[in-house]
Amino acid sequence: MNGVGEVVVGLVVLVGLFGVVVQVLPGALLVLGAVVVWGVVTGGATGWTVVVVSVLATAAAAVGKYLLAGRHLKRGGVPSSTLVWGGIAGVVGFFVIPVVGLFVGFIGGTYLAEWVRVREPRPAWRATVAALQATGLTILVELAGALVCVVAWAIGLAVA
Question: For the chain, which end, N or C, has fewer CB atoms within 10 Å of the first or last residue's CB respectively?
């Protein structure tokens, strides 16, 4: 791949990493897609090794984030229906309140759903905090997988 192509791949990787942290874009898939394109175009043992490492890292992160978050939510006693309501409220908030609406909506929707379910403010808040912690875990695991892709790509760039 020529220098311009590598710069474009690097820019898409940066946008993907931003998307992983902000959770508005499908960040890990953007990173993976850019690295896979680079690997396929580069070809050879280096390119295909980077592709395989990246696909495995992204798949492991995708599975791991749901397992870790699910276990954390189960320990916190948060049912999946609460997360559905929090997600719906987050989407509504995204369109109602610019910039921070997704987060405000998710927190408010999760708290309200739990408050309706348990009728107590403290347990509802504990469940909301557990949901936020689980969300943070998913972001960290997804970011780790994306960073493995970036490191594999950087090593591939150095070797190729």
Answer: C
3-state secondary structure 65-121: HHHHHHHHHHHHCCCHHHHHHHHHHHHHHHHHCCCCHHHHHHHHHHHHHHHHHHCCH
- CA R_g for the chain: 19
Residue 25 CA: distances (Å) to CA of 21, 87, 92, 109: 9, 15, 17, 21
Q: Confirm if 40 and 32 have CB atoms less than 8 A apart.
A: no
pLDDT tens figures, 25-82: 899 999 999 999 999 999 899 999 999 999 999 999 999 999 998 898 888 888 888 8
Round to whole Å and give the CA distance between 116 and 132.
18
Dist. CA 31–CA 150, nearest whole Å: 8
